[in-house]
Known about the structure:
four-stranded antiparallel sheet
Amino acid sequence: xxxxxxxxxxxxxxxxxxxxxxxxxxxxxxxxxxxxxxxxxxxxxxxxxxxxxxxxxxxxxxxxxxxxxxxxxxxxxxxxxxxxxxxxxxxxxxxxxxxxxxxxxxxxxxxxxxxxxxxxxxxxxxxxxxxxxxxxxxxxxxxxxxxxxxxxxxxxxxxxxxx
Length: 163
């Protein structure tokens, strides 16, 4: 459950929280949502907590433009570059959400604000001047949905073996 993980992060990092809104779906196909205000000891402390809960799938109530910076040289990334997960990811670019193309784990996101495009790129393909996403602001991750129906304890072993 995403909510449980988010609350664990807040408490483990010595933050505090307050529920502002809590809506529970009444049927299996209904969505549930909540609004949580998170408190930290300082801006830096709060930013650390927020960065971590965003990676779990939380979203900010208002969309902020993604932050990016030009790569200073080939295969050199700006400080605080964003490292991708393997979950579907979008960036808020030029006033709208743009799906990141070619998603791969632990890579970087390069954007073109004029064309409103974003794609995943390994560091070896980053070129001087590429606009590399920095930080978590304006990045949205869609974690996998968990079934509401009971899943067996060993269901995770149900996959096939890779060749």
